[in-house]
Amino acid sequence: MWRNPIAVVAVAPLVLCTLASCSERDAESPPAATGGSTIVELEGQFAAASRTRGAKAAFLEFLAEDSIVLQPGPVWGRAAWEAADELPGTLAWAPDRAQLAADGRFGFSTGPWTLTDVEGKRTVEGRYVTVWRETGGAWRVVFDGGFARAPVGDTAPAGPVRLDEAHCGGTPAAQPGDLQLLDLGLTGTAGGDSHAERLRQLAAPGLVVFHPPNADGAEGAEALAAALAALPPATQLLPMGAGMATSGDLGYTYGLAAPEAEASAEAAYVHIWCRGADGWRLLLELRGRLPRPAG
To answer: What's the pTM?
Structure first.
């Protein structure tokens, strides 16, 4: 996620499939929790490291060697954080949704984040999505993306974390490239189905979209219709990478979005996909704006 308000503006080379690898420091042991609470516990460890040792140290501890982060476009995660300065304040976050795949080794979370100064005043806030994978006994972040906004009002009290609400079931024969093809199929056309119409056709029950500056998300028929209506009808999706659980029930894609063919990309995105009885369905979408090209 883009929890770093200091953006590193760059675009990663084409990555057809993001696979986690163990970092140089193995996790002490996988969490004892089950289901989505496993991911919540991991996020708690990650966020605690950020509060006590700083965001840079925390990300370099938890990012996989081949991780991708949005800053605000897709870049190699560890290289971006190794080159970054420490953030001017305390970066904190907590998930409000989490899902674990059937293999017990892959999952994601999303939630709000804040950056506060030395006096505890929020200076920036936003929404994140993080994808986790366990390999060789070590859990690491393979994808992290999101967006920032200026603080809006008081922070709402945190409610219970929504765990494993999606009912996903898959097959190990599924491949990450299948999800990238779905992204390509969401591209809208000037004379045919719009991007929003194609997205609705593949929406999972409970689809939620996070489009800046709405860090709370849009879900439900009315809110989704309004959020999707704001997207350019001929939006072109340019998938750059994907990954999925070995159980083939949960996966993600990420890439760039342009408002129309031949136009410059204006946003980066991440999609979370859930495989149901009728095939893959889009469970979550997050977009983050890219800087406008000079001129």
So the answer is: 0.88
